[in-house]
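Our platform keeps sequence and structure together, in a single record for each protein. Because each token names a local backbone shape, the row as a whole describes the fold. One such record is reproduced below, unchanged from the form in which we store it:
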Amino acid sequence: MGIVLTAAGIILFVYFVNRAGVGQVYDGVKRLGAGFILIIIISGARHVVRSAAWCLCMEPPHRLRFYDALRARIMGGRRPWCVTPSRY
């Protein structure tokens, strides 16, 4: 199922980039320059920091591995309250 959803996501991405125009997307990224990379790094760092915080919330004898927390965080996407306890 994961492969099918990944393929569907890639197909949708290609469709929308083509619809907007590859040149226009490229120009937009080019205008941002190094800021584009900075945005990606900050976004990734946010997931890493929140996953680490989630691991620290677990008291012994329970343990949450960082990798599992990061996977749950990324899978939650725009709905972090569905997979993380941060809302409560």
